[in-house]
Amino acid sequence: MPYGILVDHFQHEVYTHPDWTPAQRKACWRELEQQYCPDKDYSENPDLARGIYWMRQGHIFESPFYYIDYTIAQVIAYQSGSDSTSITTRPHGRIT
Q1: pLDDT per residue of the chain (96 residues) written in tens, 0 to 9
Q2: Quick check: 66 and 16 in contact, CB under 8 A?
Q3: Contacts of 36 (CB under 8 A, 6+ apart)
Q4: Phi and psi, residue 95, nearest 5°
Q5: Which residues have CB under 8 Å from 95's CB, separation 6+?
Q6: Fewer C-beta within 10 Å: the chain N or C terminus?
């Protein structure tokens, strides 16, 4: 879920600052990545530590702001799972 929030936040920043240079976009990604995914370890691939991982996320290019839908769906799924003990089935298959 943190990664989905990261992608959404990054897109918001990029669209808010359309004049950013590639270096500024990379710096933004890396800063947000450290905030939302602090356990990321790029010691095996130092190029990714330069803030280029976001370029691998096709949604950013093909369907901007769509990725947040996955994150919202996860939140709803987690919430539904936590509430499952209070769901009861009534006669005729109705759930209350």
Answers
A1: 888 899 999 999 999 999 999 999 999 999 999 999 999 999 999 989 999 989 888 888 888 777 788 888 888 888 877 655 555 555 555 544
A2: no
A3: 2, 3, 5, 6, 9
A4: -100, 135
A5: 87, 88, 89
A6: C
- Beta-sheet strands, E only, within the chain: none
Measure the CA angle with vertex 54, ends 15 and 75; round to 5°.
Answer: 80
Residue type at position 95: I
Q: In this structure, which amino acid lies at residue 86?
A: S
Residue tagged 């990714």 (tokens): 48
Q: At what angle do helices 22-36 and 2-16 cross, to 10 degrees?
A: 150
Question: One-letter amino acid identity for 12?
Answer: H
